[in-house]
């Protein structure tokens, strides 16, 4: 129930935040940059919101007039979780160009960040962009758990083989 | 003196408006003793909430009182509480919910349920939370 309410809250907040449009730079001629990244005009940056599910897991949404930055902090309860999350997010961020909306470097304090600009929302339907982010949030926990189970089962097999070789 | 006058007038106006906001909040606090239901307490506090651009200590106190009252609302009573709010009250409540979700993650479960109930009426409140940069709680 907590997860459903969290996902629903994130979905509704993204629906409201992704009302973005093309807005060329007011400072530099012929420049059209995401205002949430350049931060040259405070009047174009909207109030950021943080949605926490637990102490360990939260989503930080920074809207602006022509772009939205979404930062996700994934939960990790032990060292193996932390390593798996780091490796998985690093793998995704190295392929940021394929995703289009992924940021190569996460915002400080978060595991992964997405930057959605007006051109993404115009090219793909806004609802689909929201669905992508929500689906990512829903499935990431499952992915990390499966990877952890894989690591544990492989470690068990390796340890068994090692001990057997020692006995013989 | 002439050059300082506009700043002085602004400062005096600001102090007077701050005083009005603080007075309304104190009046709302005074009415709390007469109600026992947490939903009614939240409505009274929202009506007198210190929603303003000023950084005043009453904002912290209002947050504490509203969060405590919101946590006392039973799950089954959330929908009836939210349906009894006006548009303006929903907007103020939404501001407090986002502050709660940021600062009190241990009780996020309850705040998320109330957020879902409020957004059933539309995402207008969320848009106003993001756009109203001067009216903060």
TrEMBL record, chain A:
Name of the protein this chain belongs to: Actin-related protein 2/3 complex subunit 4
Record organism: Carpediemonas membranifera
General function of this protein: Functions as actin-binding component of the Arp2/3 complex which is involved in regulation of actin polymerization and together with an activating nucleation-promoting factor (NPF) mediates the formation of branched actin networks. Seems to contact the mother actin filament.
Superkingdom, taxonomy of origin: Eukaryota
Family in the record: Belongs to the ARPC4 family.
Pfam families: ARPC4 (PF05856)
GO CC annotations, alphabetized: Arp2/3 protein complex
Entries under InterPro entries matching the protein: ARPC2/4, ARPC4
GO molecular function: actin filament binding
Keyword terms of this UniProt record: Actin-binding, Cytoplasm, Cytoskeleton
Cell compartment(s), UniProt: Cytoplasm, Cytoskeleton
Gene Ontology biological-process annotations: actin filament polymerization; Arp2/3 complex-mediated actin nucleation
Automatic annotation (TrEMBL), chain B:
Localization, UniProt: Cytoplasm, Cytoskeleton
Assigned keywords, A-Z: Cytoplasm, Cytoskeleton
Pfam families: P16-Arc (PF04699)
Keyword Chaperone: no
GO annotation terms (biological process): Arp2/3 complex-mediated actin nucleation; regulation of actin filament polymerization
Membrane in keyword set: no
SUPFAM superfamilies xrefs: Arp2/3 complex 16 kDa subunit ARPC5
InterPro entries with a match to the protein in the record: ARPC5 (IPR006789), ARPC5_sf (IPR036743)
Annotated GO CC locations: Arp2/3 protein complex
Predominant place of localization: cytoplasm
Family assignment from sequence similarity: Belongs to the ARPC5 family.
Function: Functions as component of the Arp2/3 complex which is involved in regulation of actin polymerization and together with an activating nucleation-promoting factor (NPF) mediates the formation of branched actin networks. Arp2/3 complex plays a critical role in the control of cell morphogenesis via the modulation of cell polarity development.
Protein name: Actin-related protein 2/3 complex subunit 5
